[in-house]
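ok so i was messing around last nite and threw this chain in just to see what happens. nothing serious, just curious
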Amino acid sequence: MTTPRDPGTETANMIANLEKSTGKTMQQWIEIAKGSGLQKHGEMVKHLQNEHGLTYGYANLVVHTANNSAAQTKSSDDREGLIDAQYAGAKGVLRPIYDRLVEIIQGFGDDIEFVPMKAYVSVRRSKQFACLQPATKTRFEVGIKLKGVQPTDRLTEGGFNGMVSHLVKLSDSAEIDAELIAWLKQAYESN
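result:
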């Protein structure tokens, strides 16, 4: 049986390693990120990677910390609040899709972690293998990390998160079928 991951400890270790690797504290990196004048998460991450040589993982952590969107730094209640906020208002009709996917994915193994961010939930094992996002009030997106898998009409290439390679769009929980579950299971097993 795998020992459950402790996101708080992992984040603390990354922050300590960030300073050891770069010679700058998290606060200094936050000031650099905010000083870039960029607003979008992805743009700030790319800036830190391209202009300052940070790896994606460190750059992503710095930007999440700068924007106070890193779920690992929040309590369980705050994390649940992030999920509730994603389904507030008109997007509430998509919550059954999220709940059903969580139920199915949890059945893959006891080493799965759901990490809510502001706009989506990252699904991780040793690495992120999927993302769950209420994209609009009528469309739910499942981002899946499937390297080497050819896209289809349903499993399109790309996604809303740079850590996933494919995207499946849903509008109803009835669209969660054996094909989608198989793709998610494949991503889980290969990450």
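not much to say yet. Residues 91 and 136 are 7 Å apart (CA to CA).
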